[in-house]
Amino acid sequence: MARGKFITFEGGEGAGKSTQAATLAERLRRTGLSVLQTREPGGTPRAEAIREVLLSGKAKRFGPLAEAVLFYAARESHLELAIRPALEQGTWVVSDRFSDSTRAYQGAAGGLPRSIVDVLDAAVVGSTRPDLTIIFDLPPELGLQRVARRNPQGADGERSASDLDRFESMTIAFHRDLRDEFLTIAKAEPQRCVVVDASLSMQMVADEVWSAIRKRFDL
Ligand SMILES: Nc1ncnc2c1ncn2[C@@H]1O[C@H](COP(=O)(O)OP(=O)(O)O)[C@@H](O)[C@H]1O
Ligand SMILES: [Mg+2]
């Protein structure tokens, strides 16, 4: 049986990743594929427990290295128990965030040297790299406006608008650094990454995502 494809969604807050991950997973299922829709940090019980610590901000005072280590502890569980078994069974995996988020958040915007993220990534991810990464690009001001409007039953279904998480509450300068880094990654790895204009309507973004999928894979 052919190995499944590994697709990751990356980009800043409120870019529409969670919304579009659900749309893409559904669209792929309609073509007859088996699909695992998942997210980071999270995707397994152990990783979801680490997610709570990270997004609550409880690990913030430990600094970007400790946070990066926690993200990779969650990622290791996610890969071992969810992503690799799925791919081996021929299931396609759509992950809302993956390693590029650590590069952007703890690396470029957080100040952790790139070489450290690279070492953690080599140890934990190894050769299980995404076949395709979609970078959702939009001005951070627009993304943060969307997050502020997101109601408690939003795509993540777990937070109210006034209750920003560890990263949503960072300065606009931090979010600009994130955007720059995601675009730098896309430029450095054009064979893996496709940038979509996330400021468009949900329908238009969904169409851009689908066209990137069709271009990359034989569907
Ligand atoms: N293209 C879009 N245009 C306008 N609002 C959007 C769009 N995509 C998503 N949203 C809304 O913006 C908010 C953030 O979307 P979400 O998918 O949670 O983003 P992310 O997961 O990237 O943070 C949600 O309330 C969602 O309904
Ligand atoms: Mg989300």
Short synopsis of the structure:
This protein is α/β, with parallel strands linked by helices and 219 residues long. It is 53% helix and 12% strand. α2 (45-56) packs antiparallel against α3 (63-88) and α3 (63-88) packs parallel to α5 (114-124).
Features:
alpha/beta; binds magnesium ion; globular; Rossmann fold; binds adenosine-5'-diphosphate; 8 helices; 219 residues; five-stranded parallel β-sheet
Number of strands: 5
What is the C-alpha radius of gyration, as a whole number of Å?
Answer: 16 Å
The oligomerization state is single chain
Beta content: 5-15%
Specify the CATH homologous superfamily. Answer: P-loop containing nucleotide triphosphate hydrolases
- Tally of DSSP helical segments: 8
State the strand order across the main sheet. 2-3-1-4-5
- Report the average pLDDT across residues: 95
Describe the structure.
Helix 3 (63-88) runs parallel beside helix 5 (114-124). A 5-stranded parallel β-sheet has the order 2-3-1-4-5, sandwiched between helices. Helices cover 53% and strands 12% of the residues. It has 219 residues and is of the alpha/beta class. The protein has a single domain (6-216), classed as Rossmann fold (3-Layer(aba) Sandwich), CATH 3.40.50.300. The longest helix is centred in the middle third of the chain and has 26 residues, at 63-88. It has helices at 17-30, 45-56, 63-88, 99-108, 114-124, 140-149, 172-188, 202-216; strands at residues 6-11, 35-39, 92-96, 132-137, 193-197. The chain is built from 8 helices and 5 strands; from the N terminus they run βαβααβααβααβα. It is globular, with a radius of gyration of 16 Å. The chain binds adenosine-5'-diphosphate and magnesium ion. Adenosine-5'-diphosphate (ADP) binds at residues 13-19, 146-147, 150, 154-156, 200-202, 205.
